[in-house]
Amino acid sequence: MFSRQVTKNTSVLARGFASSARANRKVAVLGAAGGIGQPLSLLLKSDSLVTGLSLYDIRGAPGVAADVSHVNTNSEVKGYEKDDLKDALTGAEVIIIPAGVPRKPGMTRDDLFNTNASIVRDLAEAVAEYAPKASIGIISNPVNSTVPIFAEVLKKKGVFDEKKLFGITTLDVVRASRFLGEIKKADPKDVKVTVVGGHSGVTIVPLLSQTAHGKGVDGETYKALVNRIQFGGDEVVKAKAGTGSATLSMAYAGARFTNSLIRALNGETGVVEPTFVKSPLYESEGVEYFASNVELGTEGVKKINPVGELTAEEQELLKACLPDLAKNIKKGVEFVNSA
Ligand code: NAI
């Protein structure tokens, strides 16, 4: 599926990163038996860069692991449940977290805070103890708050490395590319849209002017497209009618992000993914975490790219994003520190 990347990686290995081919690239998925966790685990099993898969959930992960383990790729798969978190995390280099409840129709991502905040906090405590050097990708919503929660726990435990904590916002970019491609009747693989900010509603800021296909989109079409990118997740929540939110497209996006992260860890250069990280870009406006295009490297975050030139409309979108994002981040930080 991610063959372009894999081919590229092979050439990188041929150029002298041969040791990375043997490197441990064990990936742990926490929440592996869920709607996202299952297809994500399957996609990771089909990624030749993943050398081991550790599937954990409070229930059901051994079954998912037994099933996925029959796929004839080289990685070893193990399933863990209930109290086996220590074994699941030990030796993991990359940890991807889709644990927690999804939205139902009418809910915002912030409505999930009460349930998911404590799930993410507890998982962070275990990661701090058993895999403190791992790179961590958070899918659990609200990402704008769960990433700061995770960071605060790691800080308290003295193991926070801001280069290694990522909120996975790839789905916003995948959607933007698909939706703009539909309007322009273009193959989405040729339509790359930068999306910055956060991962919910108005905090999602697509920068359509920065892509050739997006430049000519204006008026009502522009407004409708921006709205669809910001609230595209609601289409899925509504269509699933109470049974969940995006799982398959999210698994695709999560697998793409993980593949990019591993390629960069393996020494490939020029790997850029949008992701929500601790960022200096809008820190002076009280926004400590921000999603933008980030160049990944052997240590995680290598370079945080600025947002670039914005149109007047995009400046307005950013103006609407920042205060909401600041609130979401503060809520996460306070959740950990007021406990
Ligand atoms: P789901 O309910 O199908 O699966 C969640 C899984 O987490 C369940 O198997 C559950 O047993 C497990 N779980 C609960 N507490 C746990 C714990 N303490 N440790 C380990 N596992 C635990 O939900 P789904 O659809 O997979 O969504 C998961 C999360 O991903 C939700 O918060 C959802 O809002 C979020 N999401 C994020 C997106 C993004 O773009 N970042 C996109 C779509 C969903």
From TrEMBL:
Annotated TM spans: none
BP term (GO), one: malate metabolic process
EC number annotated for this UniProt entry: 1.1.1.37
CDD domains with a match to the protein in the record: MDH_glyoxysomal_mitochondrial
Swiss-Prot/TrEMBL catalytic activity: (S)-malate + NAD(+) = oxaloacetate + NADH + H(+)
Gene Ontology MF term list: L-malate dehydrogenase (NAD+) activity
Keyword set includes Lipid metabolism: no
Keyword list, A-Z: NAD, Oxidoreductase, Tricarboxylic acid cycle
InterPro entries assigned to the protein according to its UniProt record, in alphabetical order: L-lactate/malate_DH, Lactate/malate_DH_C, Lactate/malate_DH_N, Lactate_DH/Glyco_Ohase_4_C, Malate_DH_AS, Malate_DH_type1, NAD(P)-bd_dom_sf
Keyword NAD tagged: yes
Gene Ontology annotations for the cellular component aspect, listed alphabetically: mitochondrion
Family: Belongs to the LDH/MDH superfamily. MDH type 1 family.
Subunit text: Homodimer.
Matches recorded under NCBIfam families: MDH_euk_gproteo
Protein name: Malate dehydrogenase
